[in-house]
Amino acid sequence: MSSYRRSKPPGGFKAYVDFVEFEERPIDVPEEIEYGKAEPQLLPGEIVIAEANNVLKFAPLKTNKTGISGTLFITNFKVSFVTSLPVDSKEAEMHDKSLQSHFLGVHDVCLSEVDMVNQFSEGFTKKKRLFYNAPLPPRLSGLQLVLKNLRMINFSFKFTPAGEDLRVAQALLHHAFPPSIDHLFLSCGYPPPPPGIPDFCMAQDWERELQRTRCPNWRVSKHNEFFNLCSSLPTVVVVPRDLLDAQLEQAAQHFQGTRPPVWCWGSLAGAALVRMAQISPSITDKQQENRMMGLVHRCHPKKLQPTILDLDQILPSLKDIQISYIKLRELHTPDDPSQFWEQDRHYYSRWESSRWLSHVSKCLDVAQSAATAILHHNSSVILQESEGRDLSAIISSLVQLLLDPQARTMRGFHCLIQKEWVSLGHPFSARLGHTRNDVEEQCPLWLLFLDCVYQVSVQHPSSLEFTSEYLVALWHAAHCSLHSSFMFNSVNARHTASAVLQRENPHQPIYLRPVWSWWAESYNPPGKKQNGPSEDNLKRSSSREAFLNVHYIQNLMESLSASGAFRRISDPLSSAYHTWHRIESLLGGAGSLPFDSTATVVPLQLDASLRVDVTWSSLKPWQDCFCAWVSEPATLTLNELESTLKRSSPTSQHWKHLYQMYNTLKNHLSEGLTNGVIA
Amino acid sequence: MFSGGGIEKKGKIKGISQLGSISSSSSTGGTTSSSSSSHSNKSGSSSSCSNNSGSSSSGSTPPGTPPHVQMASHESLNSESKSSSLNSKLGHESAGSPSAGSPSPPKSACSSSSTSTDQQHHHQLSHVLNATSKMTVRDGTRTLRPDEPSLVPGEHLEGTAREVTYLCPYTGPKKGTLSVTSYRLYFRSPDTDPPFELEVPLGVVSRIEKVGGANTSRGENSYGIEIFCKDIRNLRFAHKQENHSRRMVTEKLLQHAFPASHKLPFFAFEYCEQYPENGWSVYEPIAELKRQGLPNESWRITRINEEYELCETYPAVWAVPAAASEHDLRNVAVFRSRGRIPVLSWIHPESQATITRCAQPLVGVSGKRSRDDECYIQHIMDANAQSHKIFIMDARPSVNAVANKAKGGGYESEDAYQNAEVQFLDIHNIHVMRESLRKLQEVCYPHIDNAHWLSNLEATHWLDHIRCVLSGALRIADKVESHKTSVVVHCSDGWDRTAQLTALAMLMLDGYYRTITGIAVLIEKEWLSFGHKFAQRIGHGDDRHQDADRSPVFLQFVDCVWQIMKQFPHAFQFTEDLLITVLDHLYSCLFGTFLYNSERERMEKEVKTKTVSLWSLILSNPSDFENPLYNPATRHHVLFPLTSIRHLCLWDKYYCRWNPSMRQQEPVHIRFKELLHVKGQLEKRVDELRKELAARQTHDSPRVASAIV
């Protein structure tokens, strides 16, 4: 048996573990039984690095008895556990609601998801963290993986042939904590992600945004084309119309991270939302800062004074947020049932003392006051923050979520995140700890933002097109390297990584898949053979039902069922027509999200803004996210599969009726169209 | 109906639409549409509000804000969530009333008015409205003054005081007229548009106190009365000293709120509404036992307690092991506290495993034994062929069980009872529960301390107790369902914790009890017939508000039901509205259902013939309580809810319903009702169009059309 199974030439894999280390296997490894046939599903370019046989996997808080036996593989992409035994229902459910379910199996974990690796002794009496740069103990009885999404998986090596445990652990530690991003498995080549998803790295996307919002007096500057102006901004930025590129360059030098103020959103009345860095600490004169503010001021058609929000002053520091997160992580990753119950007794007060909800409340509060300034006072808002890449991303996107109905749609939310987070350079890698060097700078701002959106969805259950489960999926997606939207510190870093990969694999196309391609992938799973269409359809509808907000679509349907709207449904100029096409693209069989770049730009209307109640008692702990993986330790001896009624989704019946309505309408329309009558 | 006693009937729409524009310090603002921005400017600029919210949420509502906020409490969110949905609707027409069943008030044109909100408040209301409309028909000769309440049949006006100020903790003082009837307190303030109205059934009142003396009161609104309610509210009214109205009001209130203390009958005996269904016949003990498959070879039905002699707190009809003779029963009764011997509550239709309930054995310090009792427990075990073991679930913490030995009680020793395993379920006594609810009330009413909301909530231990009760019931259900083993449940007297446990375990095991009729049967059987002392625990009509026998045991049970409902939204035929209605009338004394302590007392007082049953109301209006999401296939499933605290939450729609700053989620079932309505509408339109099309085609080219039609 060769120690490496290669599905294809090594692809994007860059080996930095010495090959020879694994070449000599102890002879006493039994060339084993049927387990030997277990093979992980490999993507193009993915290779197996180490494997261990007869491994027991068990969910946390479960005894060894409930473990399932299988083979553990470490590849350059994932930790894969291969077994023929049935899957835990909870894991299966979470897998169905994952955006990566098409290339990660139910037992698979992407390497970049791994947060901590612990070894534990028999019976879980001792636990010790393992580090990539520290020596391993001579024998491991078990490994515990703690993932960045708070999932825990335990593997026991009780029956594993000696030596395999260490090899697996070593490979895992080496590959899960890479020295730089391009060591991650970022590209599996085929097929290319669907085109046409706005990424806000191109001038056209920003131009469209300006056109859509109709915010006057701003222009697109391409002065950052080679990232010479600022390495963390995209190649195009939107700046005041009166600002010359040369002045822009001069101004940039005065700001931290050489980030000049940039426009990110605005209204027809002229109020603009601007993100601006603080002036560099080494520079004492505030001339450039004042000049920039003056320019923002002058951009306003009514020359109203802009509102300046100093986020460093009014929001908690990144360190505080990280401390809160660590507390919540502890609360949701108990080691054993007794710890679970101990924590459970103080569950709500621990939530409170973590202060996480207070951070959520502050973010929403600041976003709300910014939204009020724009909506009611028609005042431009400048969000100022040290480098303008962290908290300002949260506030800026929340403001738009509250004011801009488009940001509440699936597609609009993609655009929002792509614009505010990815393109404007939120340092995802540093904040989420994607490399071994990023440990110090970690801070889950992304999660904080999603939690804020969750609170909006709780308070306005039918105003977002997506569900809180989608937000959970986005949080999980931020750790999976193959969907690389949330892997890099900036657009520039992404280009660099892509170039490095291309240089190493000159004959292969390199595609960095944006996470937004999941919709299309659910039709064409990358690197996998086509399954039977029926199974695919089933899966598609289940993930859609999980991610699309049934109440939102119900509203769309309601607006159609009104008699006036209903008659105009086939009139391309009516709003009913557009509503119908929205519904069709969501419920119908289209293979890609409606990223139709040819569609006419629908101008922004500020007539349906949301208000959020930010008092703490109105904010809810986000259980769907934080309690997603920890199941209650069994207090019962019952046979769960047989007798329990599954906690089914309360909206399943909604969906049934919605689909019926959809079909009624569709049939009717086709009838009407063939007869060519409806006036 | 009477949703919590207090209702404001008319014109809540307008009130709510204004609500949306209250500055967000009252944290109700849901949507600010640009059209309503002028409103928000009026009531405190909205930019300031976002800054002070959070810090000053504790009800610093500016005076002059619209009325009805208090009453609107649980409506407020609904209206907003609805309005948010309305906002996202393109060209939505206000025509589509979602509440097909219940009459819904006319909608205003303003988009932030509510539709779904009223619905639930409303359908509880509709009965009142029905009742009152009938009343006016009957009393056609006399027309009501606008500031008098409309009365239910049997109710009469006792007194009216003018120029009284209601000090609303949320929206500030309101001046108006206070009326007291034989059933309720009614306050109406015409100052606002629409008029502010408040109704409280007097049964809800637990204590009335005078505030300020004739000579000592200075300052505005310092002279008056404060009314403490059993449903988590306190109401304060200020009187003008010179009107001398306080004395009359207080006297009338005391008299009618505490009829038992004044040797007067409960209002239930005067209430004479006619309902199409007779709720008294919903539970027939024999029929229910037959439904469970009794009698069978191991269990028989006995009428040994027909005259309530053997055990005065038990029902007349029992199901007992067939192997035990009447003589045995008498002997066992001697050894069980208050003669409450183990009697069947539920039997598993397949395995024959049973749940039996009783009181503690009279073991005492000396460790007495009773051969008969041991035999009897053996009979119960033998009646189930599937298992050679029996579990005795003692609901108390083991310390309490031991301590009870000193008072002559105790628990079964495993040495004496062969094959029996005793387990303690750690549920605390009524005093602990009462204290917990008191703390909860402090936390929820009138104002919520936002900064410490979660830790304050935890410090009440309310959810802790809920968890204990639920997991105890879960353990019983598990033993019966998965181990096929019979379980004997008791606490000290077997009428508080035992009732909670058996009723909840039965609810988990048997889908019948999750129907509207079923829950009525369950409450009638496990709570009322087996002698949960409602009169003592609630203190109906009794003015001793500090009575140590009062305790929210039944409320806890209802809360547990709600927690299970929340986890299994498809498994219940009824919605939480039913639970809230039950709780409201637990206190209201409008119906005879919850009066008195035992079946025997109710027989003596002829409750069944002289009062109306709460189930008459519910069974006559089932559509108001039906859960559209109910899936009847779940009848045959067993529910095993999660019981860790992280999966439980405070039932804010009940406990925080008076607080407008507390938002509640719009229940999914209401959205579902709306959906069905829209679907119907859509189908109608399709039909219309199809006909139109056909007609047009007939007109254009008759030949083609005939082919289509």
Number of strands of chain A: 15
Low-confidence stretches of chain B: 1-142, 702-709
How helix-rich are the residues of chain A, as a percent range?
25-40%
Which band does the percent of strand residues of chain A land in?
Answer: 5-15%
Please count the helical segments of chain B: 25
Q: Strand arrangement, largest sheet of chain B?
A: 5-4-3-2-8-7-6
Largest sheet of chain A, described in full?
A: 8 strands, antiparallel
Radius of gyration of chain A: 26 Å
- How would the global form of chain A be characterised? globular
The oligomerization state is: heterodimer
SSE class of chain B: alpha+beta
pLDDT under 50 segments of chain A (min length 5)? 1-36, 526-539, 638-645
Biggest interface, and residues per chain? A-B, 91 and 97 residues
**What structural class is derived from the secondary structure elements of chain A?**
alpha+beta
Distance between the termini of chain A: 72 Å
Total helical segments of chain A: 25
Helix proportion of chain B: 25-40%
Strand order of the largest sheet of chain A: 4-3-2-1-8-7-5-6
Topology:
The complex is a heterodimer of chains A (679) and B (709).
Chain A (H helix, E strand, L loop, with lengths): L19 H4 L24 E11 L9 E8 L2 E5 L6 H8 L12 E2 L3 E7 L6 E4 L11 E6 L4 E5 L7 H13 L26 H11 L4 E4 L15 E4 L4 H8 L9 E5 L5 E6 L9 H13 L7 E4 H4 L3 H15 L4 H9 L1 H8 L1 H21 L4 E5 L5 H13 L6 H14 L4 H5 L12 H15 L8 H10 L13 H14 L13 H4 L11 H15 L2 H12 L1 H5 L7 H13 L21 E2 L12 H4 L13 H4 L8 H24 L4
Parallel strand pairs in A: 12-14, 13-14
Antiparallel strand pairs in A: 1-2, 1-8, 2-3, 3-4, 5-6, 5-7, 7-8, 9-10, 11-12
Chain B lengths: L11 H8 L11 E2 L4 H6 L3 H7 L16 H19 L28 H23 L18 E12 L3 E10 L2 E6 L6 E6 L3 E7 L12 E6 L4 E5 L7 H12 L27 H7 L7 E4 L15 E4 L4 H10 L7 E5 L6 E5 L12 H12 L7 E5 L3 H6 L16 E5 L5 H15 L8 H7 L2 H21 L3 E5 L6 H13 L6 H14 L4 H6 L13 H15 L8 H13 L10 H6 L2 H4 L3 H7 L1 H4 L26 H4 L12 H33 L1 H7 L1
Parallel strand pairs in B: 12-15, 13-14, 13-15
Antiparallel strand pairs in B: 2-3, 2-8, 3-4, 4-5, 6-7, 7-8, 9-10, 11-12
